Amino acid sequence: MGVGIQVENVNAWYGKSQALHDINLKVEANHATALIGPSGCGKSTFIRCLNRMHETTPEARVEGKVKIGELDAYDGTSPTQLRRRIGMVFQKPNPFPTMSIYDNVAAGLKLNGYRDKKHLDEIVERSLKSSALWEEVKDSVHKKSGASLSGGQQQRLCIARALAVEPEVLLMDEPCSALDPISTGKIEELIFELKAQYTIVIVTHNMQQAARVAEYTGFFLLGRLIEYDKTEKIFTNPSDKRTEDYITGRFG
Amino acid sequence: MRSNCPAKSKIGNTSFPRHATAFTNGVWLGTGTAFALIAIFGYLVYKGIGSINLSFLTQTPKPPGELGGGMANAIAGSVLILAIASLLGVPVGIGAGIYLAEYGRNRFGDTIRFVSDVLNGVPSIVIGIVAYAIVVLRQKHFSALAGGVALAIMMVPTITRTTEEMLLLVPNALREAAFGLGVPQWRTTLSIVLRTATSGIITGVMLAFARVAGETAPLLFTAFGNQFWNWRLDQPTAALPLQIFTYAISPYDDWHRQAWAGALVLIILIVSAVAAVRIAVRRGTLGGVA
Predict the structure, then answer these.
(1) I want to staple B88 with a disulfide (CB 3.0 to 4.6 A). Which of A184, A216, B152, B158 is the partner?
(2) Which of A97, A107, A161 sits opposite B289 (nearest CB)?
(3) Residue B171 exposure: Cα atoms within 13 Å on the Cβ side
(4) Is pTM, for the whole model, over 0.90?
(5) Residue A218 sits in a domain of what CATH number?
(6) Interchain CB distance below 8 Å, B183 and A108
(7) What whole-number distance in Å separates Cα of residue B124 and Cα of residue B223?
(8) Comparing C-alpha atoms, which of B287, B173, B178 is closest to residue A111?
(9) Read out DSSP for B111-147?
(10) In this predicted model, what pLDDT tens digit does every residue of B147-206 receive, in sequence order?
């Protein structure tokens, strides 16, 4: 089951330049939350703070409090422990090129030392089914490499890989930006189904996509969270002038 | 619009022959290189094949002036010395390369890079002297071990730098993918980054191996050479390049012929070792996950 995320006074830097200013936000469990805003506004940086991926960039640093359910992300939790509970899907599909489809999905468990072959088989099948890829690849999970799939399939493979470690939260950083409309449609349907089990935070440049998949939407501008509300409210009756300008296409 | 058209067609006209010239040049250069390689190998075969026979491959050298005998002990000695060199040099080189690529973006890393580049340019005879000083003088023996150490020192910088380059070519997206699954950094390095870069690293290792396999100078006062069989690590040991050197500068025609044969055997050994490793690695990486 998904858990909620509570973010308090998060600031983030790359070297000396501040990328996030005082972000406060509550993500509802088992809902999809979309983050929109122009390029460079900090939405990607923000979700990378949630699973402590931000700090892997040289000279990057974070301050503030992030709670994933009951777990304090920055206090008494190691990044690896945290990331096992938070799946992440990246902008460009990034399957492991040396591994078969099966091994890609099982990678998170195998590389963390899990060896029970029978249980792995079940998990791989279940994860590929949840990411709507099973029917297309079931005959070649061992034979084909993850890199031999099409872009859309690769992205669904990456989603399966993230789901295999049974996370509570799924972070998606513009998961459809490298995909064609048909693959995008499939991933959006998927997000709809996954909401039942996971809390989803999705960064997107596509406002229609935000409107289609998310119950809540946050609007970022220049490293600040300008407005955060029900998606419907953001797109029909935003309370901030800047949000309105952005969603009506007056800038950005 | 109209003024653009003639200019455009002009570019079109001139660029076609230019491409053609570049292409022909490429073909010529390619053929030239291939020709040079084939010529060297062909000449070696021509000079050496006649003297390769069973006794050459199974016997030890005869005393000066006597006909016959062979380089069996030198072939074995080379295999022994190269095995020692690889056992010492490959892990150190790959380890240093991993450190530089994954953790070495600091002053210490820069120092290692600098030292390794300098080491790459040190004449092989000097490395022989170093091995003489640190192994031979201490053991009070010329030995296979000393020869192996000298060659290992020569292998390290090449392997280090190619490993680093190859690891840096692995897209960061793959590291992030593994981090995102909660895989610790050391595991990511070993199971994802290193695996993805395997074939490039193998190329570096093979380059270093092939280079030191033919080295004579660093063995002169480390392995020293031996007219007899030796399998002990702490005894003077024959090696193909040394034997070729000794025979080539000798006054006997039979030894000259054997030197050619030795050179041919050396090349064949290197080529087959490189090919065998490549095939083994290709089989290995197509299998499952580590």
Answers:
(1) B152
(2) A107
(3) 10
(4) no
(5) 3.40.50.300
(6) yes
(7) 14
(8) B178
(9) HHHHHHHHHHHS-HHHHHHHHIIIIIHHHTS--HHHH
(10) 999 999 999 999 999 999 999 999 999 999 999 999 999 999 999 999 999 888 998 999
What does the alpha-carbon distance between residue B13 and residue B8 come to, in Å, rounded to a whole number? 9
Residue A126: inside a domain: no
Residue of A nearest to B197 (CA): A98
Our CA dihedral for B86, B89, B91, B94, rounded to 10 degrees, sits at -120
Amino acid B38: pLDDT: 92
Cβ neighbours for B262, distance < 8 A, ≥ 6 positions apart: B48, B71, B74, B240, B243, B244, B247
CATH of span B72-285: 1.10.3720.10
B227 pairs with which residues across the strands? Answer: none
Asked whether the beta carbons of residue A111 and residue B178 sit closer than 8 angstroms, the reply is: yes
Angstrom distance (rounded) from CA B202 to CA B90 = 10
In this complex, the residue of A56, A95, A110 whose CB is nearest that of residue B179 is: A56
The pLDDT value recorded for residue B4 is: 44
Would an 8 Å CB–CB cutoff place B173 in contact with chain A? yes
Is residue A111 in a domain? no
Tokens matching residue B163 = 């490993």
Q: Residue B83's Cα: distance from chain center in Å?
A: 12
Residue B240 β-bridge partners: none
Q: In chain A, how many domains are there? A: 1
Structural domain that includes position A26: 5-93+168-247
CB pairs under 8 A between A and B: 80
A106 touching chain B per CB within 8 A:
yes
- Residue A160, domain member (yes or no): no
pLDDT at residue B21 is higher than 70: yes
User: To the nearest whole angstrom, how far is the Cα of A174 from the nearest Cα of chain B?
Assistant: 14
Q: What is the pLDDT of residues B76-109, one digit of tens each?
A: 999 999 999 999 999 999 999 999 999 988 999 9
Residue A128 located in a structural domain = no
Do the beta carbons of residue B166 and residue A67 sit within 8 Å? Answer: no
Task: With beta carbons under 8 A apart, name residues in chain A contacting B175.
Answer: 56
Torsion over CA: B234, B240, B241, B244 (sign): positive
In chain A, what's the furthest Cα-to-Cα distance? Answer: 56
Element (H, E) at A34: strand A32-36
Contacts of A83 by beta carbon, 8 Å cutoff, 6+ apart = A51, A52, A53, B179, B180, B181, B182
DSSP tag of A92: S
ipTM: 0.89
| pLDDT above 80 for A1 | no
Q: Which helix (H) or strand (E) holds B100?
A: none
| Closest by CA position to A107, among listed B211, B255, B106, B192 | B192
Collapsing DSSP to helix, strand or coil, B57 comes out as: helix
**How is residue A224 written in tokens?**
């600040």
Residue type (1 letter), B142: F
pLDDT at residue B284 in the model: 66
